[in-house]
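Predict structure. Chain length: 498.
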Amino acid sequence: MFPILSSLIILPLIGSLFLIFIRSSEKNTSLKYVALFITFTNFFLSLYLWKIFDPSISTFQFVENRIWIEGFINYKVGIDGISILFVILTTFITPLCIISVNSTITYRLKEFLIAILIMETLMIGVFCSLDLVIFYLFFEGGLIPMFLIIGIWGGNRRVYSAFKFFLFTLVGSVLMLVAIIAIYWISGTTDIEKLYELGIQEEYQKLLWLAFFSSFAVKTPMWPVHTWLPDAHVEAPTAGSVLLAAILLKMAGYGFIRFSVGLFPLASIYFVPLVYSLSLIAIIYTSLVALMQEDMKKLIAYSSVAHMGFVTLGIFTFTQQGIEGSIFQMISHGLISAALFLSVGVVYDRLKTRQIKDFSGLVNIMPKYAIVMMIFTLGALGLPGTSGFIGEFLVLMGTFKKSIITAAIASIGVILGAAYMLWLYKRVVFGNLLKTIDIKKMVDLNKYETLILSSLAILIIVFGFYPEPLIKTYATSIDNFINTINVTTELSLIEKIK
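Prediction complete.
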C-alpha cells in the first residue's frame, strides 16, 4: 500500500532540503516557485486522500506502523474523520502563506520558506500521529520554526514576543511529557489505539488529565494563559500570524478531543465545571478586551481567544452537536482568521501601520478589498450563510442540552463578537477618506492578493450554505467517540456500585 500519510508528512521536509541547494537571492522567484510546487502538490495529495477516505468507518484508516525503539517508540500514523480535515486545512493554508510573502519578506527569503515548509511537516505530523511520543515530538517541534519566524522576521519587539511564545508553550508541555512517560509506565505502551482499548485506570486519570491540560490550555490558548498570543500575533509577519491562528491553535483543540477526552473520559467529565468556567471567561473577557483595541492585529488575536473558547466549550459538552460544532468551528476559524490576518497584511504593506485610527473610508479607493473584508467580518461574527455561523450554532445547541445558563452566557459572546467586528469594519472601510498623501496612494488588491482572499471568501460562503461535506466526514467518528465515552462512564458507575 502506498504510504500516503508519510508522503504528506515528508514531502515539505524534502522540499525544504531542496531549497538549501538553490542559490539564495532576495529577488530569486525560483525559491517561491519550488516552495509553491511542493505545497500545492501536498494539497492535491491531501484532496486525493479525502476522496479515497471512507467516512462510514469510525476506525483509523491508512495506518502505517514502523518500530523505532522496541516497545517504546513506534512511528505510527493514521487518520480518522476527526483528523483528516485538519490535514487538508494545513495543506490548503500553507501555499497561501507562501503566495502572501510576495512583497512582505524582504530578507532571508530562503530561510523563511524553509521554516514554513518544516512547519507544514510538523503540523501534518501532529494530526496523523497514533503514538504519544511521536505526537509529542511533532507537537513540540513546531515551536522551533515558529520561534524563528517571529524572532527573525517579526516586528520591533520580535525577540521579546518570540521568547514569550516559546517559554509559555514549552513550560506548559513539560508536564505532558511527564504524563506520557507515566502512561507508558502504567500501560506499557504509548500506542494510542491500544490505549483506547485498554483504557487508563480511574485513579490515574485526573493527574494525567491535568498534565495534558497544562499543555493544551496554553496552546489553545485559554484564559488566563492566553497573554502570549496577542504579542506573538502583533510581532509575527503576516504568514506567521496566519499559520499561528489557522493551524497551531487547532493542534491544541485537536489534542483536547483526541487525548484529554479520548484517553481520560472520566477525568474529563469531572473537570467539566473548570473547562466551562475558563471557556466562558475567555469568550466574554477577551471579547470585551477586543473592543478596546486600537491595533487591528491585536483585535483579531483577542477574537481568536474568544472563538477558541467556543471550541473548548463544545468539546466538553460530550454531545454530538457540541463536538461536531467544535470541529466545524476550528475549520471555519482556520479559514476566517487566516483571511483576516491576510487582510490586515494587505493594508499594512501599503501604509506600514496597523492602527485603526490611521484608516478610514478605504471603500472609496479599495472597493475589492472592502467586499472581501466584509465577507470575512460577517464570517467572524457568525452571520447565517457563513461558515462561522454553523460551528457556533452547533456548539450552543450542544451546550443548551447540558446547561442552559452556560449556553446563555456564551451567547453574549456572539453579541460582543458582532460588536467588535462591525466596529472594526466601520472605522476602517467606511467613513470619510483620510486626507493624507499615503492613503491616497493606496491601491486595490493585486492579482496575488485577489487570488488568496477570494479563495478564502468562497470557501467561507460555500461551507456556510453547504456544510454537509465537512460534517459527513467526521460524523461517524464522533458518534463512535461519544458512544465509547458513554460506555466507559457506565462501566465505571457499575464498578462503583459493586
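Summary: The mean pLDDT is 87.
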